Amino acid sequence: MTEPPFMIDGARVLRFAILDEAIERSGPTSTVFGGMPVHLHDIAGVAVAEDLVEEGVFLVLCNDEWVSLTSARFGDVREARACAEDALPMTRGRWREYRDLTPEERKELETTRAFLRELAQQYPNE
Q: In the predicted model, is pLDDT for residue 42 greater than 60?
């Protein structure tokens, strides 16, 4: 498994952990995360990603192709990482900071941010 794309589900990846074969084959095989049941053996990567609309981050559990299985919102990176390490101890010691974005990626990120903020203004959460 390689690094994730720089955005997952419209959120900018800040840190990530590749789990590879880290999940124990004994013990619990599933959990509930972000209100969704998740089979632990489906989780191959975890990302902390910046919310492009408002303050905060998402903790995103992903499969081996960095497709999100579920996510939960947190106030900051530290809080999201602590939750991940509590719920998924195999993430400890595996965190990597995402590389600097290329100019093209930065441009796409800002275009996506503007689009998502416009949508949020048109359709506010009530």
A: yes
